[in-house]
Design brief:
Strand content of chain A: 15-25%
Organism (chains A, B): Adhaeribacter rhizoryzae
Protein name (chains A, B): LacI family transcriptional regulator
Structural class of chain A: alpha/beta
Number of helices of chain A: 12
CATH class of the largest domain in chain A: Alpha Beta
CATH superfamily of the largest domain in chain A: Response regulator
Number of domains of chain A: 3
Helix content of chain A: 40-55%
Oligomer: homodimer
Strand order of the largest sheet of chain A: 2-1-3-4-5-11
Number of strands of chain A: 12
Distance between the termini of chain A: 73 Å
Largest sheet of chain A: 6 strands, parallel
Order of helices and strands of chain A: HHHHEHEHEHEEHEHEHEHEEHEE
Shape of chain A: elongated
Keywords (chains A, B): DNA-binding, Transcription, Transcription regulation
GO molecular function, one term (chains A, B): transcription cis-regulatory region binding
DNA sequence: TTGTAAGCGTTATCAC
DNA sequence: GTGATAACGCTTACAA
């Protein structure tokens, strides 16, 4: 019940606090028997070295922060799963921060983390278009940052991303090859870096296949399912696209629902392809053609890069890892 | 670049460290002008009070640990989203620990957390059948624990769960009412509390509808999709159930896939109902009848209970919140 | 192999 | 309103 600290434990055993430390940290300059005695009593009394006191001395926290827009997005869940498993192996702990795509939250998290609470940060940004000086402050403090997926081009840091331009190009190309003439793009509004790149791949493919780039067909979506439903529904009704390229699986799921309600046949009347990390793509009616990012691996590699820096291989700062996404064609883009 | 601490800042401004503290903690016994000077220079020099030093003094970390089996399970992602939003409001930070349903990991996380690193713990257990004395140790240290969803009945702590028995009963009843005579149950093997309760609701409903309880029809699943695929597939082929009640959406998704491959028509030849938190249930082919748990709210309530304790309303320890799940009937259980 | 003692950077208590 | 000072509980030189 009463808190027991290193000194009382030391007194109890007639050794010095330093020796207790030696036992707990696995140092070699200690008599094995002493060590055993110490650990035995510690276990019995349920003594554990105080985390905050240790860290204050060591100035290493073995903790990293992960900043992401949303957890409920399966892509991010998977990325964190991948990242956590490596972190856990390495003895690191993970703090989670959710920005909900709000720039102010991102800034405030980063500012907070200047207090030395974490050894490093892994993040997926939500504010490409904004000023990033709050991040430069961090770097001055020697707190390394690694980006994944939603990266900031103007910040010098290791980054893990996927071949967004190429995949988007391929996705749009596939729709064109399957006969679509009026291909809509459902993207996310906030000018995030990946939003831009996905858009470019889409537009370039349109041009290469002699299809006009119609601004109307580019639908800016938000994080609100209801609102997205309304605006995608409106777009489908009024513009009658025969192909949809969605930048996120939720947008595809919503499109499915709308088609079902409007009795628009997929893929006959409308073909759909979407970025997706979810295993259910295969189970939808019809099964959904996807571009699937290696989410687990992205998280894993991001953690790897961060640990490289933390372990002193500082050239890693220059690292840019670009992983391949996979285009998996299913029924939603089949020709009849 | 060079680290700046409270003393150097104090020297710079010709005040004492104590006054700096007063400025940063918003204490009233400080001249507003002095405060302004301090905060201004602090901002300029990018000074932030060291987190570990503060905590060592205060013995409050404003941090909670969340221990869950998996992050990629949408139910847990949602629960954490719900929990994080309240935590964030209250100024708390969240450490995530993933057990992957391994008892040893759960024990080791809990033991680790005895070091005073967090003010409290919110967890969903993975080892109902095992010994829980490691948790009692925690409680001696006055680190409160709140359970959600996968609760341990033998541990005295606040708990948030859903009406698992009733929902399972209702689910099984629905299948019986829709004419199923041979209802299989896909459940999770590790005898978790909710696993047991779901099972009981299933068995009691069978009895009440005059259907035999056949052990063979109770399929024990694991966390491995591949293996589950194999054993569910085998069960469907050999036992030919006409109804399936799945304890988790993954198991339902897998069943869909198997039916598709075996050309078994849902719901004509086989009706399916499943626990699910995913929004895609509605988009499957056919749409999936679900029992949907209020995941966000579960997380939110769990956090609420923990904060009540941390804020001194200790009677909260007795709290047991049971939330209602919703049965949403869709096409996968329709009669033809 | 072990002990002593000086910090780590804060904050609380008490003076002034 | 402000400053000196003693903790908080640990780790690490250095000495023995």
């Amino acid at each position: 019940m009463n808190k027991i600290d290193i000194k009382t434990l030391a007194k109890e055993l007639n050794v010095s606090p330093a020796t207790i430390t030696r036992a707990f940290r696995g140092y070699s300059d200690i008599n094995p028997e002493t060590k055993e005695r110490i650990l035995a009593l510690a276990k019995k009394l349920n003594y554990h070295p105080n985390y905050y006191a240790s860290n204050l001395r060591e100035t290493k926290s073995k903790t990293i922060a992960v900043i992401i827009p949303q957890l409920r997005d399966i892509f991010f869940s998977l990325a964190i799963d991948g990242l956590e498993s490596l972190a856990n192996q390495k003895g690191y702990h993970i703090l989670i921060y959710r920005t909900e795509n709000q720039y102010e939250k991102e800034v405030s998290f980063i500012n907070y983390l200047q207090n030395g609470r974490v050894d490093g940060i892994i993040m997926s940004g939500c504010a490409e278009a904004q000023d990033h000086k709050y991040l430069h402050q961090l770097q001055k403090r020697n707190i390394p940052v690694v980006f994944f997926d939603r990266i900031y081009d103007d910040v010098k840091a290791p980054k893990v991303s996927t071949d967004d331009y190429e995949s988007s190009y391929k996705a749009t190309k596939l729709l064109a090859e399957r006969g679509c003439k009026k291909i809509a793009h459902l993207g996310y509004k906030n000018a995030r870096s990946i939003g831009k790149t996905r858009m470019e791949g889409y537009q370039d493919a349109l041009k290469d296949f002699g299809l006009p780039v119609d601004e109307q067909l580019i639908i800016n979506c938000l994080d609100d399912n209801e609102q997205n439903y309304a605006c995608i529904s409106l777009a489908i009704k009024s513009l009658k696209p025969d192909g949809i390229f969605a930048a996120g699986e939720n947008l595809a799921f919503i499109s499915y629902k709308i088609c079902h309600e409007l009795q628009i046949k997929i893929p006959d009347a409308l073909k759909i392809i979407s970025y997706s990390s979810s295993e259910v793509a295969d189970l939808l009616n019809p099964s959904l053609t996807t571009i699937t990012q290696p989410a687990l691996e992205i998280g894993n590699k991001a953690a790897m890069l961060l640990f490289q820096i933390l372990e002193g291989e500082s050239q890693a700062v220059e690292n840019q890892i670009i992983l391949q996404s996979e285009l998996i064609e299913r029924e939603s883009t089949r020709m009849r």
